[in-house]
Amino acid sequence: MEELDTSIRDKRNFLLMIAPADGQKLSELAGFSAASEEVAEAELLDVVTNWIALAASGNLKYVQNAASWISDFVIDIYDFPEEHKSQLLGAYYTYGVALLSYLLEVEAIEMFSRGEKSDNLENFIEFLPSTFTVLTMDEEDDSDE
Predict the structure, then answer these.
(1) pLDDT 10s per residue in the chain (145 long)?
(2) R_g of the chain, CA atoms, integer Å
């Protein structure tokens, strides 16, 4: 039996996962057609559900650790201003979560839960605000037209 090529769907889902707040805009910038309002809402629900499931597993703290390590390294090596660290950390973190989600989706890896789900979610919620807004797309102000 021939395997179905899911790369287009996987790419769109990856882009949606990497920018939960603005995944639709990001996927449009990557060349995907704009989703209908109904589809966009369903995709957002899927993305948020995936993020919550990953957070509840307790494994996102390892993604956060790795994102912090590489952020510190980049800040030090390239003399980036320290005030850029939270943005850099958020970008690496969302990339790590999207990659983890993709690997799970294509069944390249398995994941096991660690710790208590409620504690895991509480730790995730502390990091949430900067995570969901790190890759927001700036829109031009069309109000003057």
Answers:
(1) 456 678 899 999 999 999 888 899 999 999 999 999 999 999 999 999 999 999 999 999 899 999 999 999 999 999 999 999 988 998 999 999 999 999 999 999 999 998 888 888 887 777 664 555 544 445 444 444 4
(2) 17
Which residue in 106, 139, 117 sits closest to 60, CA to CA? 117
Q: Please, are residues 75 and 82 in contact by the beta-carbon 8 Å criterion?
A: yes
Tell which residue, 117, 100, 96, has the closest CA to residue 109: 100
Establish if 1 belongs to a structural domain: no
Within a domain: residue 77? yes
pTM over 0.85: no
How many Cα atoms occupy the beta-carbon half-sphere of 36 within 13 Å? Answer: 2
143 part of a folded domain = no
Residue with tokens 């502390």: 126
Range of the domain at 70: 7-133
Residue 59 counted as domain residue: yes
Residue 73: half-sphere exposure toward Cβ, Cα within 13 Å: 7
Domain count for the chain, please give it. 1
Phi, psi of 135 (to 5 degrees): -110, 40
